Amino acid sequence: MTAFKSLSSSNAICRAAWGRRARAFVLVSFPVALFGCGSATPPGADAVQTSASGPNDPAWVTNRPKLPPPDADRINYDEQTRTLTLYDLPGNDRWMVRMPGEMSGRAITPQHRLPADTELSQVMVYYARPGLKPSAPVSVKQIRDSGNAHSSLAGFR
């Protein structure tokens, strides 16, 4: 009877060891299955960046030195009136402009008129998010050039 007792006790030890291993496997694999192995991969350098950044940005956007630049195609510049027309930004983001010779930008309204005799390549437009870093700037010259590339004569008859 002692042989059966020792066999059943070693069998119980073996079952307990496998039970601990199974619990350890579940405890390790459950968080991996739930949260994944890592964060989203940032897009490459040649990927098109949009201005659709907001409070639910992925980590690769908020961990950059600057937020993505504004979408120059959505900003209009009228050369005759020297007026920038900016699109609406999400949340509490606000438009900023840095004029030539200024060290930092200043907040502007969605309709902003530039002074005469301003070098367009040196006027930088960007947006800022309170509590975070500003976006990468785009020059008014880039905005003007991007608008010219999309002009169409379809409206003229």
Flag low-confidence runs: none
Question: How far from one another are the termini?
Answer: 107 Å
In CATH, the architecture of the largest domain is Sandwich
Major sheet summary line: 4 strands, antiparallel
Looking across the biggest beta sheet, what order are the strands in?
Answer: 4-3-6-7
- Rounded to the nearest angstrom, the radius of gyration is 29 Å
Total count of strands = 7
Number of helical stretches of at least 4 residues: 3
Q: Percent range for helical residues?
A: 25-40%
- Please indicate the count of domains: 2
The SSE order reads: HHEEEEEEEH
Short description:
This protein has 157 residues and is of the alpha+beta class. The chain is built from three helices and seven strands. The chain folds into two domains: 1-36; 66-149, Immunoglobulin-like (Sandwich).
Write structural notes for this entry.
The protein has 157 residues and is of the alpha+beta class. The chain folds into 2 domains: 1-36; 66-149, Immunoglobulin-like, CATH 2.60.40. Helices cover 31% and strands 15% of the residues. The chain is built from 3 helices and 7 strands; from the N terminus they run ααβββββββα. The strands form 2 sheets. It has a 4-stranded antiparallel β-sheet with strand order 4-3-6-7. A hairpin with a 7-residue loop joins strand 3 (94-98) and strand 4 (106-107). The longest helix is centred in the first third of the chain and has 34 residues, at 2-35. It is rod-shaped, with a radius of gyration of 29 Å. The N and C termini lie far apart (107 Å). 11% of the residues are buried.
